[in-house]
Design a protein that fits this description.
By secondary structure, this protein is of the alpha/beta class. The protein folds into two domains: 193 residues; 147 residues, 2-Layer Sandwich (GMP Synthetase, Chain A, domain 3). 26% of the residues lie in helices and 34% in strands. The protein is built from ten helices and 13 strands. Strand 11 and strand 12 form a beta hairpin. Helix 9 crosses helix 10. The protein is globular, with a radius of gyration of 26 Å. The protein starts with a helix and ends in an 11-residue tail after the last strand.
Length: 381
């Protein structure tokens, strides 16, 4: 009997020993996001450490607890900069919850992105689904901005971009995985969401900062092409099948405006090959809901106005892309997928030459118009 008890005790000790090397949650810091700049030959890394006590809370956050701490570290290489973090911190840093990465304009220039991606993807705890952003504004303030109503900092627009993207699909969010794939496939370019800070919310104590997606930063494998901001980037949402809900404001012949919400978007690009002359037809299918208007409208008026405005936005963004020597809609990739032999014959540095005439037709099919009511007339007559 004593031998049986001894065997049981020894076996029980072996089971317990498996937990002895685990780290307690409160004895670790959690890296939630980072921003990277490059100045005077040094990488400068801003790291956001979040409080574990509020990580799982989305509603009632303890206002007495500091939600995050931010510090910056410099190094000749990115690894050296990250290494300096550990010299000034009390506990082990866990990177498994690392959610977003902000890149400054200087970091995107002169092929400096490669060391950044190498460092992020080779570390065992970080993941390829980390969100990536670009900006030309000071970096540290992005990491100290908390969500409206001071909810958990894990719910910021940076860490959870898809939540607001469902209601207003302006710029498609980009992960590290998508960035790598896009830069390796023709035309070897990616549109990274451009963000900026706005002091546009007021409360009983003081104005609150918010983070706004306001365009894209265009990155190629060779260099940084610059930013396309605000209205100039509107055409991108009409060529993205990730678009869930987008708004368009159209004008009628009598200079009156109306706004619509576009959903169920399906965009297809068809390359038209005529020898060495390549053009593209863009075919878009949508449904639309009428939001705001003045005066009496007909379904024909609405469809005509929506089609006209979407075509204009697509052409305007394409033209700005050409000015920056960028295949903004990745037309080269469509040719590569469907006519690879033609692509190999015409490509130079991973892309085919585009001109103002490269888009031959833009066909927009408005399959349904929903007024939300039974008429297209003013509510108050």
């Amino acid at each position: 009997m004593k031998k049986i008890n001894l065997i049981f005790l020894v076996g029980f000790l072996f089971i317990l020993s498996g937990c002895w090397d685990l780290n307690e949650n409160e004895r670790m810091y959690y890296a939630h996001g980072a921003a990277i700049d490059y100045n005077e030959g040094f990488y400068e890394v801003y790291v956001q450490i979040i409080s574990f006590s509020n990580v799982a809370k989305s509603e009632q956050v303890n206002q007495d607890v500091i939600q995050s701490e931010v510090n910056s570290f410099r190094g000749i290489t990115l690894s050296e900069a990250f290494g300096n973090l550990y010299n000034s911190i009390d506990e082990e840093v866990y990177w498994g919850h690392f959610s977003f990465l902000i890149l400054s304009e200087n970091t995107l220039k002169d092929s400096r992105l490669n060391p950044v991606i190498n460092d992020i993807t080779r570390f065992i705890d970080t993941r390829y689904n980390t969100w990536v952003y670009s900006t030309d504004e000071p970096l540290s303030e992005f990491l100290t901005t908390v969500p409206l109503l001071r909810r958990s900092i894990t719910l910021t627009r940076l860490a959870d971009p898809l939540n607001s993207f469902k209601q207003q699909s302006f710029i498609e969010p980009v992960t590290v995985r998508k960035l790598i794939i896009s830069l390796n496939d023709p035309p070897q370019v990616e549109n990274i969401p451009y963000i900026r800070l706005k002091m546009d919310w007021d409360n009983q104590k003081k104005p609150s900062k918010s983070i706004e997606t306001a365009g894209v930063g265009i990155l190629s494998t060779t260099d940084f092409k610059g930013f396309i901001k605000e209205k100039d980037a509107e055409g991108l949402k009409w060529l993205s099948n990730k678009t869930i809900s987008a708004r368009v404001t159209s004008t009628l012949e009598n200079n009156k405006y109306f706004s619509s919400t576009v959903k169920n978007l399906e965009a297809k690009i068809e390359p038209i090959v005529n020898g060495s002359n390549i053009q593209f037809d863009i075919n878009i299918s949508i449904t639309a809901g009428l939001d705001n208007f003045t005066g009496n409208l007909t379904p024909e008026d609405i469809e005509k106005g929506i089609v006209k405005q979407i075509k204009k936005e697509i052409k305007d963004t394409f033209k700005i892309g050409l000015e920056k020597d960028v295949d903004i809609y990745r037309l080269t990739e469509v040719l590569y997928r469907k006519h690879v032999k033609v692509y190999k014959k015409l490509e130079k540095d991973g892309k085919v030459k585009l001109t103002d005439d490269s888009i031959r037709n833009i066909n927009i099919d408005v399959q349904k118009i929903d007024t939300g009511r039974k008429s297209f007339e003013d509510t108050i007559k």
